Amino acid sequence: MSRTVRVPSGADGRPLGRDEELVGALAAYQDTVVRSRHLDAVTTELVRLRCARQHDCRICQTLRLTAAIDAGADDELTAKIDRYETSDLSERQKVALRIVDAFIWQPGGIDAALAAHARAHFTDDELAELLVDVTKWSTQKIHVMLGTDGIERLRTDERGRAYLSFTEDGAASISQRREVRDEAR
């Protein structure tokens, strides 16, 4: 589905007149967030996709984290995100998604019960990463609002997916086929 681009854009689809210093600072923040390794890859992917669906980011909904796929996050698992409360996802995964929803829609409404569930299922480091992950994945709201979240530039496989991984320094790498990681390295 095409979305109207709401700002003047260059041939690369990026908005014209962007403040490159601000764009660089945001990119550095995002690169730093994805380097954190407290949360497991599957939880990170569930959080990322819940954010994508809440914000209706077409690019993020098309992407899949290769590390999460390697850890077992297949289409059957990720299809449960939209109806997670009635799904057979683990309680830990449901708590993570409840945190995403509360953080995005009503952060002041995080009550004592949700906080207690969060502490019961996550370490302090995991919770900190989960919350910062929500802010990182929510920066895509900018592209959705501007109409620049189009997948037209994104090369996908036959299933309409592209695969996302990160280098050690946090730089994103997107490909149309999943690279299998060599765990022996």
**The CATH top-level class label of the domain at 39-154:** Mainly Alpha
Cα Rg: 17 Å
Q: Given the C-alpha coordinates, what overall shape results?
A: globular
Full CATH superfamily name of the domain at 39-154: AhpD-like
Q: In this structure, how is the largest beta sheet organized?
A: 3 strands, mixed
The CATH topology of the domain at 39-154 comes to: AhpD-like
The class by helix and strand makeup works out as: mainly alpha
Question: Could you explain the architecture of this structure?
Answer:
By secondary structure, this protein is mostly helical. It has a domain at 39-154: AhpD-like, CATH 1.20.1290. It is built from nine helices and three strands. It has helices spanning 20-35, 41-55, 58-62, 66-70, 75-78, 91-105, 112-121, 124-138, 141-146, and strands at 63-65, 162-166, 172-175. It has a three-stranded mixed beta sheet. The radius of gyration is 17 Å and the shape is globular. Mean pLDDT is 88; it is low at 180-185.
Keyphrases for this structure?
185 residues; mainly alpha; AhpD-like; 3 strands; 49% helix; disordered C terminus
Helix and strand layout, with pairings?
Layout: H1 20-35, H2 41-55, H3 58-62, E1 63-65, H4 66-70, H5 75-78, H6 91-105, H7 112-121, H8 124-138, H9 141-146, E2 162-166, E3 172-175
Parallel strand pairs: 1-2
Antiparallel strand pairs: 2-3
Helix pairs in contact: 1-8, 2-6, 2-8, 6-7, 6-8
